[in-house]
Structure formats: structure tokens, C-alpha cells
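[Solved] Which block belongs to which protein?

Original post:
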Amino acid sequence: MMSKEEIKEVILSLDDKSVPSVMRHFKTAYAGKCDMKEVNEVLKSL
């Protein structure tokens, strides 16, 4: 599983940081490798 730091790095590297776009990116590129709830928490903290 990805750490919160790894998730944060990926989010910061994306052009579009809107919630739907970020969630879609993680669902397709990191399916099974990250906790979507954690992705959402990290995204909200940025």
C-alpha cells in the first residue's frame, strides 16, 4: 500500500487537483495499491 507521503507526491504532480480528477487518476493508475479513503484525506489536507 502507498504511504500518505507517496500519495501526496502523486497528487502534487497532477495538473488537475480537483477531487473527481484525483480520485479517477488513483482508481485507474493505482487500483489496489492505495486506500481511496486515505487519498481523499490527503487531498483535503492540501
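(Second protein starts here: sequence line, then its C-alpha cells.)
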Amino acid sequence: MTERRAEDLRDEDVLDLVLEGDREAFSILVLRHRSRVERLGMGFFHDAEEAADFTQDVFLKAYTALGSFKGRSLFSTWLLRIAYNTAVNAKQRRRESLPLDPDDILPGDIGADETHERGETIRAVRAAMDGLPPRQAVCIELFFGYSLKYAEISEITGFPVNTIKSHVFRAKKLLRERLGIGPEVDDAL
């Protein structure tokens, strides 16, 4: 490493060091960006162990692809695109949608009737989500499921912000129609 401290180096400077043969410098990038990648992994997999494996996989992919980084975007944007694509591919391989955990929806002790009703609601939402066009489904999952802002979704997916807004709007409309929800419930959906 150079005489400069790691925290004084920009990501691009660290990348230059790695590409010049300083493999240990990559750990600086891992430390800087691990939490965002792990957060994305938790959003997709809802399991700390899976998110940790996912994070390791993403950084391995990024390290092996460093030569393809052209600098047209920030390193963090490039890395999150790798993370997003890795997560989407993993979900598609498992052929499962993002799980809706009933405990995330209604906390506490509930009776058998409410448990049944909750299960039916979750199945209806999953069915409605499964029928969305893929880009709309991704945008609405990231927007509502992970509380990401349009700019963050754009950074992850590569879709323009206005396209994301349009996808979220259209997905909300389709979900309302499929679930039989009137526009008066727009705040919730």
C-alpha cells in the first residue's frame, strides 16, 4: 500500500492498487461496502447466514471481474449491480418469491381464525405479485419490501428513476385491481 492512509484513498485509487497487484488492498473495498451488500442480501434472503454467504459470493465475483470495471459509474454502483444480479439469479434458481413472513405483518399472539386469515392474505398477495411483469415486481418489492428510495432502486437495478416511479405506480394499480382494493386504500398500497 502507499504511504497514504486507507481512509484517504478513493475507491478508484484502491482499485488501481488492486489491479497493480496489491491483492490485500481489496479488503479496504470489502470493509467499505460490506454493510450495503449484506443489507441487500438480507432483503432478498431474510436469513443472516444466507446473506453472509451471498455477500462473500458478491465480493468474489467483483474481485474476479475487476478488470471489467470501466469507471463509467462509481465502484459502489457497479458492486451493487453485481449484488442485485446475483440475488435475482439466486432467487430464480430457487424459483421462489421473496417470502412474506406473517410475523412481520401482524405481531403478537393471535387466534386460529386470524392465523388462517393472515395465511389467506399472504397467499393472495403472493399470487398477485407473481403475476406482475418482472420489472414492476422488482421495483415494488424493493420500494415496499425494503423501503428503498427511487434513487437507491435505480442504483441497484440500473433502471432510470422515472421508469422506477412508473413501474411502482403501475404495479400498485395492478395489485389493487387483483386484490380488489379500492383507491381509498392507496396509502397502504
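Accepted answer:
You had them paired correctly. Confirming on the second one: Confidence is low (pLDDT under 50) at residues 96-100, 102-107.
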